[in-house]
Amino acid sequence: xxxxxxxxxxxxxxxxxxxxxxxxxxxxxxxxxxxxxxxxxxxxxxxxxxxxxxxxxxxxxxxxxxxxxxxxxxxxxxxxxxxxxxxxxxxxxxxxxxxxxxxxxxxxxxxxxxxxxxx
Length: 119
Fold this sequence. Notes:
Blueprint: H1 4-17, H2 19-36, H3 39-58, H4 62-80, H5 89-118
Helix pairs in contact: 2-3, 2-5, 3-4, 4-5
């Protein structure tokens, strides 16, 4: 039977191995939102970003979580804005283009590092 530190190490390994698939899913969701810039694609992207913001720090990827958290905060602020002060989805996509690229690049780097370590 595994003790708690061994179980956590196993969970962290699994999480690390999932970084490549997280990158693919996030990149696809970002492309969909950037192309359509509507509420449905925004919500799909936000769900992925929100999950990453919560899970990444728990598994030792604090910087990744901070990047995701900042983007998640932008989405939350946008969702909570009154109709009169709410930006268009296109404006949100434009505003998030640079932070999303940084997040995607960082996630890709962690995924590549994980792949190299498992080889």
